[in-house]
Amino acid sequence: VTDATYRTIFDLANDAMFLHDGRTGAILDVNQKMTELYGYAREEACRLTVADLSANAPPHTQERAIVLLSAAASGTPQQFEWLAKDRAGRLFWVEVSLKQVVLDGDERLLANVRDITERKNAERAIHASHESQKTLNALLRLALADLALDELLHRALALVLQGAWPQTQGVGGVFLVNDEGTLVLASHIGLDPQGATVRSVGLADDCGCNSDDYCTPIAAGDTPLGWLKVYLSASHRLDVYEEEFLGAFASTLAGIIVRKRGEQRLRAADDQLREQAALVRLGEMAAVVAHEVKNPLAAVRGAIQVIGRRLPPENRDAAIIQQVIARLDALDELMRDMLLFARPPKAQFMPVDIAALARETSELVSQDAGLREVRFEVHGAAPAVNADPNLMKSVLLNLLLNAAHASQHAATVRITVVDTDRFCCITVADAGPGIPPEIRERIFVPFFTTKARGTGLGLPTAKRLVEAHSGRIRVECPPGGGTVVTVELPRFPGT
Amino acid sequence: MVGQHSDLAVTLPRDLPDGGKKAAVPRILVVDDEPLVRWAIAQTLSDLNYEVGEAGDAASARRAILDADQPPDLALLDLRLPDSDDLGLAFFIRTHAPDTTIVLMTAFGTPEILAQAAAFGVPVVNKPFDMSELTVIVDRAFTLRTL
Asked: Which site in A138, A474, B17, B117 is 20 to 30 Å from A274, CA atoms measured?
């Protein structure tokens, strides 16, 4: 077999081949396939080092190549995968098998290099498919757990950002459109919610963010719900498998969000129904209590009053009779409060000047001996609202008494009446200590009170009466201190 | 006290000790099923020198009206009685004793009943009331009567 024959066979090989010097590792010869695969001419290739033909990032470096070449040179054939680089700088995977040969008495190393790009792609596809399946399964399992939406979103994000695949920076967020139609950062890992990155995200087709990151729309059919954003490190390249995975993830998430929101709405409606049913039962009970307690109370009071009147003025028991009557009156008042909450009278609507009613009510409260030092100021005015003056007076009375009780002595309670297009807003602001957050959510619960002597029916009754006007009531404690109760009465109930 | 009401308890005197003052002492019939209330009202009125008769239900009240030589000048009627919870008793008294002034007492006056009473020309007082208000209520009723 001549040299020329060897050459022909060498060049016919389907794999790229390198002939290295057994001692130095220098490239002595390459075959035709090598020049095709790497894009170098034979003469050029022979002037290159392994480093020039490698990704040259650990572990695919010159140092590692020398270790492998030496091992082969000492008689142990080597087989390994290597990230190679062609003349244009493109990286591609090869499988190298390295064997010691003796040619014409010289120790040589023959490297058989096979392009395994296809195999690597297939492997990557299988890996991506396996990993995305695993993550999607985990997401579906999350959906089955009884989690609040916030918690679920956070755990879903962790699945994407903190799993083994895809390789991300571990930073991202879920942006969702809220009930008011604004896009908000619903959940995130590693983002600054006030930062420019977050603020730049909008709901338009082009979300307005850096295209080097993954920005996957979350949508229920044609309705956009928001974005799933995954931020990547500078070196990370966008990858079709990752994009597909994030698309599937976002679709699954959309389904879960829609279902969770539906469940929330159902639960809220259910709670409301239950609450209404409870109120109806309470109303029935209150009617019985009214009959069974109020009547005997009145009877006892009347009889005691007759007996007391007949006592001679100097009788010491006359004072006790007065006290008994005062206690009976307090009991009767409690019954009245309970009845008003449990079975409020049907509202008799008529035009009411709310500011005038507020003035009238504040004068009434001012007459209370214990509250003489509290000042009431009524500001603003509004056109007459269709309301029940008696019920609204009960509402204002409760709010003003609360504000007065919360105020330190000689403080001012400000009542402001403001007219908007749809509502007449009444705010009652005191300069008291405010309501601690842990108590704030219970203030509308019947019979909850922090007062030494209170029924805990004031605010629940106010709420019920305001709602009987199709209005809303809310309580806020501004950072500056004090408590602000806002009542919104629709100017045109029923529209 | 539910279901436990008094039977006939009429104490309208047929003969007064001093016949000369007979016309001068107005007679009042108190109809209420709650004995304590009835007692308190009757005692208060007695202390005010009225002649007081009592009835615990509508049937007793009807008999008191029919049996009396002279119908009472004023009837204080509880609206809700064991055997009546409408204006039936008031109608009865209006029919059989047209000269008797009627005042309704109620703790549970529905708007309908109140409207009917107004149409019928019967004043309504809300229960419970303070015993000291009783004199005002009765005085007003008698003032209306003389008009």
From this structure: A474
- Contacts with A, B 111-130, CB within 8 Å: 127-128, 130
Cα–Cα distance measured from residue A152 to residue A174, given in angstroms and rounded to the nearest whole number: 11
A332 contacts in chain B (CB < 8 Å): 128
Residue A495's contacts (CB-CB under 8 Å, 6 or more residues apart) are none
Q: Which residue reads 């008094």 in tokens?
A: B6
Q: What is the mean pLDDT of each run of 10 residues along chain A (495 residues)?
A: 82 93 90 94 93 89 89 92 93 94 89 93 89 92 89 93 82 87 88 77 64 85 89 79 91 93 91 86 80 84 92 87 91 85 87 93 87 88 90 94 84 91 90 86 83 82 92 89 92 60
Are B75 and B61 in contact by the 8 Å Cβ rule? The answer is: yes
| Contact flag A298-B37 (C-beta cutoff 8 Å) | yes
> Distance between alpha carbon A18 and the CA centroid of its chain, in Å?
58
* Chain segment B95-122, per-residue pLDDT in tens: 999 999 999 998 766 778 888 888 888 9
Nearest-angstrom CA–CA distance, A50 and A64: 10
Distance, CA of A293 to CA of A175 (rounded, Å): 57
Distance from CA of B140 to the nearest CA of A (A): 20
Contact A361, A400 (CB under 8 A): yes
Q: CA–CA distance from A123 to each of A120, A152, A166, A302, A395 (Å)? A: 5, 32, 15, 95, 71
User: Between the CA atoms of B136, B140, B146 and B147, what dihedral angle is there, to the nearest 10 degrees?
Assistant: 150
Q: What is the pLDDT of residue A252?
A: 93
Which of B36, B47, B125 to mutate to test binding with chain A, by most A CBs within 10 Å of its CB?
B36
Tell me, yes or no, if A343 comes closer than 8 A to chain B by beta carbon: no
Q: Tell me if chain A has a CB within 8 Å of the CB of B69.
A: no
Here the ipTM equals 0.76
pTM, full prediction:
0.57
Q: What is the DSSP letter of A165?
A: S
Do the Cβ atoms of B128 and A298 come within 8 Å? yes
DSSP B82: T
The mean pLDDT of chain A is: 88
**Peptide linkage before A345 cis (omega within 30 of 0):** no
The answer for residues whose C-beta is within 8 angstroms of residue A190's C-beta and 6 or more apart is A161, A169, A170, A171, A172, A231
pLDDT of B85 strictly over 90: no
Please tell me which residue of chain B has the smallest CA distance to A299: B37
Q: B75: pLDDT confidence band, cut at 50, 70 and 90?
A: very high
Alpha-carbon span A335 to B81, nearest angstrom: 22
Helices A295-310 and A317-342 meet at what angle, rounded to 10?
160
